[in-house]
Amino acid sequence: MIPTELLEKYGALKKVFDKMAIIFEEGNLPAYYYQIVSGEVKMSNYNDDGREFIQGIFYKEQSFGEPPLFLNQNYPANAIAVEDSEVLLLSKNNFMKLLEENPSVSIKIIQNLAQRLYYKSVMAAEMSTQEPEHRVLKLMDHGIAYFNFQKDENGYLINFTRQQIGDLTGLRVETVIRTIKALEKKGVLKIINRKVYR
């Protein structure tokens, strides 16, 4: 998203987070802009029954946690490293200065936030009205477009676990597994070595 050199010019520091490390916690006030150098990060929270709800999954060169930073509101979710991850942290004041002095970067940030808002609106409608097959395919197609999933001779490798698909679509894991198998039978998806391709 924002070139590493530009972030470092404004004082960003690289920090390594081990798998399952908490980057920030729900309820805390934001102090940094975060951008992934390598690895994978999820933002999630839990309902009263202890079920995890994933708000978003973020990959290399993507940022996360900006809305509360702009609004000066507490984080509505936790950010957790899904795997060992290297992240750039830029203080809020320096981030705002960077945006003021680099309008083209501001436009990129706005586009990124608009994309996420659009996705949340689409998925909210999907979760309230659509059948599991439709929800799962919508999520996968969004992942292909937004997360740049890799394509090979089998199609696009869907880089979500069954659990993540469930958490992102509001479905139980068992339902996700049945749905993926049904979609494979219809020829919409392929399962090769337990990996799903679209």
TrEMBL record:
SUPFAM superfamilies: cAMP-binding domain-like (SSF51206), Winged helix' DNA-binding domain (SSF46785). The keyword Signal does not apply. Residues 17-116 form the Cyclic nucleotide-binding domain. Keywords: DNA-binding, Transcription, Transcription regulation. It comes from the Bacteria. This is Cyclic nucleotide-binding protein. PROSITE patterns: CNMP_BINDING_3 (PS50042), HTH_CRP_2 (PS51063). InterPro entries: cNMP-bd_dom (IPR000595), cNMP-bd_dom_sf (IPR018490), Env_Response_Regulators (IPR050397), HTH_CRP (IPR012318), RmlC-like_jellyroll (IPR014710), WH_DNA-bd_sf (IPR036390). Residues 130-198 form the HTH crp-type domain.
